[in-house]
Amino acid sequence: MKELIIEMENYAKEKNVPIIEKDSIAFIMKYIKANNIKSVLEIGSAIGYSAILMASSNQETKVTTIERDNERYMECLKNVKKAGMEKKINVVFQDALELNLSDVSYDLIFIDAAKGQYMKFFEKFKYFLAPGGVIITDNLKFHGYVGKSDTIESKNLKSLVEKIESYVEFLKDNEEFETKFYELGDGISVSFKKNESK
Ligand code: SAM
Q: What would the pLDDT profile of 6-38 be if each residue is shown by its tens digit?
């Protein structure tokens, strides 16, 4: 298992595939254990690095992970098989915004896909949270750019950073969810429904 994880980290580096930072995944794994999380929905599998680590956090934890890029999806399937986790991890090849879900709910929803669409993911998938469930979002600092969009010259980068800044404001002002922000890795947040104590 350790070897596979190292192999995946090397693959990600070589092929420039973005994967979660170590501090952030350690935080999520600890959260899964401490809260006995049994079901996880991940938006953005890439090569399955975080899905495999989340699924390994707790014996009972099952993960459904969604990826829209074919090459990454195939690589993810391969890694899930190598990890022997076909029964714990369900990899779905689709654009998460086009996916139809019904009659399912998750204890933890992890948003780690296209950063410009975080708000859409949140609004779509919040309906699939189990009671007491949380939505975790990664990359809220976006390599230190968030909060500094005024100083960015590149139009595309500026627009992306502005979208993450709006998402952070959306979380802060949200009437339905309370969000805690953590200065871990690339910035992570945990949002839970206000009327449910955690
Ligand atoms: N969670 C992974 C990990 O830490 O190992 C990293 C995910 S990577 C940061 C983001 C992934 O989300 C990319 O592989 C990208 O193709 C995928 N993605 C982006 N937008 C998506 C969408 N709308 N639906 C499904 N996948 C998406």
A: 999 999 999 999 999 999 999 999 999 999 999
Q: Is 186 in the pocket of ligand 1 (CB under 6 A)?
A: no
Facing residues of 64 across strands? 41, 90
Token pair for 150: 């005024």
> CA-CA-CA-CA torsion for 111, 122, 126, 42, nearest 10 degrees?
-20
| Threshold 0.85, pTM exceeds | yes
Burial of residue 145 (CB within 10 Å: 0-12, 13-18, 19+) is: middle
What CA–CA distances, in Å, run from 151 to 154, 157, 167, 186, 187?
Answer: 10, 11, 19, 19, 20
Nearest CA to ligand 1 atom 14: 46
CA gap 91, 86 in Å, rounded: 9
Q: Indicate the top mutation candidate among 76, 78, 112, 123 to test ligand 1's pocket, ranked by most ligand atoms within 8 A of CB.
A: 112
Structure-token match 């230190």, residue found: 144
